[in-house]
Amino acid sequence: MLIKIQPKSALKTSDITDESVYLQRRQLVKSMGFLGASALIGSAIPKTANAGFFDSKDTDITNFKTTPLTFATDTDNLSLIKTPEQKVISHNNFYEFGAQKHQPAELAQNFKVNPWQLTISGECDNPITLDYDDLTTMFSLEERIYRLRCVEAWSMVIPWIGFSLARLLNKVAPNSSAKYVVFETLHDPKQMPGQDDRRLGGGIAYPYVEALRIDEAMNPLTLMSVGLYGKTLPPQNGAPIRLVVPWKYGFKSIKSIVRIKLVSTKPETTWQKLAPSEYGFYANVNPNHDHPRWSQASERRITSGGLFARNRIETLPFNGYGEQVAHMYKEMDLSKNY
Ligand code: MTE
């Protein structure tokens, strides 16, 4: 492998690639919304394409009130340098509130999370519906300090609060036909302006849907998150409850969930449907499988530095969680099942 050493002062293309990547992705969904999928899939944008500017900025969160949570602290991952809270809550992907990084924090402040209903049903013996209070009281809560790797090649370290999805699924007692678990975000265009404004919402067909294989869903790492940094989730991060799957690209970690369904056949998911050659069902973080339009070999870790802080690090297979999850994919060709 050829390693090119750059002078310290030079701003490398790689420092800003993830922003151009997200702009390309935004362009893709916009264009697909307006031109139709066949017009764009496979379009030849070079891997080095660079839009050359940022739209990310820290937003002052004023309206939405978060509440402190009681939880067991994560003492296993204290060595990870956490992304500052202000970055975590102001640099977001939540297309229902706009496809630019700063828009969710700005447009989601009046989002109503209480009352809320989350239904878990399908191939199981005891379907249930949880209300807002159940989400934080049904199970003891624990902190999990996880790396979050976005498909756009940026990453953060976030102290989530929540409980294992396995505990929730065990409650509903999946039957032997339950092979996949499907998750759906609230569909409420009055509150989520991107859902009926194609330009704002990136041309996605809402509601946003994601899914896991049942063994992935039951893996102890898979978290239902109700909070971060010790408090309930702000709306831009997926209040009142979201999924966090730390070994997969961030788009699998669906936000503001109202429905979980156990099903027998592999479902279609939002990004996979939009551009199947770019976003797979599995979406396991894989430095050896590039996105067709950009490299996945490295990422920009968002830390306390400014936008131009150089925090380029190597991407790890399964985002560094291989020991806990690689066994689930032993028989699979990961370049085909991306
Ligand atoms: N969930 C919904 N409903 N809508 C979205 O647009 N974006 C995904 C994921 N969950 C998204 C979503 C993507 S691409 C990422 S990287 C993560 O949320 C970002 O989570 P964060 O904003 O809390 O960092």
What does this protein look like?
It is a single chain. This protein has 338 residues and is of the alpha+beta class. The protein has one domain: Sulfite Oxidase, Chain A, domain 2. Helices cover 19% and strands 19% of the residues. The chain has helices spanning 13-35, 37-40, 85-88, 103-107, 132-137, 165-172, 214-218, 270-274, 322-325; strands at residues 117-122, 128-131, 142-149, 154-164, 180-185, 209-213, 223-228, 231-232, 242-244, 257-263, 298-301, 312-314. The chain is globular. It binds ligand MTE. Ligand MTE is lined by residues 92-96, 148, 150, 185, 208, 237-238, 250-251, 253-256.
Keywords:
single chain, 338 residues, alpha+beta, Sulfite Oxidase, Chain A, domain 2, seven-stranded mixed beta sheet, five-stranded mixed beta sheet, 19% strand, globular, binds ligand MTE
CATH architecture: Alpha-Beta Complex
Structural class: alpha+beta
Name the shape in a single word.
globular
Largest sheet: 7 strands, mixed
Number of domains: 1
The strand count comes to 12
Cofactors and ligands: ligand MTE
**CATH class term:** Alpha Beta
CATH topology: Sulfite Oxidase, Chain A, domain 2
The DSSP helix count reads 9
- Percent range for β-strand residues: 15-25%
Quick structural summary:
The chain has 338 residues and is an alpha+beta fold. Helix content is 19%, strand content 19%. It has a single domain, classed as Oxidoreductase, molybdopterin-binding domain (Sulfite Oxidase, Chain A, domain 2).
